[in-house]
Design the sequence.
């Protein structure tokens, strides 16, 4: 893990040796090429957020509590100064978040980085939809 990134994770109260932090930083589909909808760059029918949801569900099936540990990482990373880490947190929040993360996402829709703000808008939309489906 890069020294700058490890320093940021420590600043957030995270542990670079933790397997969930390592998954969060190194694995995808979340990250710079994340997709919220179908694109021409991806195979037909592929949507990154849906793939992410499937991956987290698979991890949770084999490792109960994985989703909660990821959510804890997301809560910390939503305060990151590192744009890549922050965007990953925003993307994963769409799948594991609740009202607390939704509030933070709403704040991030006004972020100075258009990429961060765009991810926050998409994540908030997806999370609202997911939360309302669970209430029905």
Sequence:
């Amino acid at each position: 893990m890069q020294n700058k990134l490890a320093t940021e994770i420590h600043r957030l109260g995270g542990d670079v040796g933790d397997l969930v932090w390592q998954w969060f930083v190194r694995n995808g589909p979340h990250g710079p090429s994340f997709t919220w909808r179908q694109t021409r760059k991806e195979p037909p029918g592929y949507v990154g957020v849906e793939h992410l949801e499937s991956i987290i569900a698979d991890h949770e099936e084999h490792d109960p509590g994985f989703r909660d540990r990821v959510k804890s990482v997301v809560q910390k990373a939503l305060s990151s100064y590192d744009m890549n880490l922050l965007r990953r947190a925003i993307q994963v929040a769409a799948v594991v978040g609740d009202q607390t993360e939704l509030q933070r996402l709403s704040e991030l829709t006004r972020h100075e980085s258009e990429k961060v703000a765009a991810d926050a808008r998409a994540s908030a939309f997806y999370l609202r939809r997911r939360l309302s489906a669970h209430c029905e």
User: Anything to note?
Assistant: Helices lie at 3-11, 19-26, 48-62, 66-77, 83-96, 99-108, 114-135. The chain is about 65% helix and 0% strand.
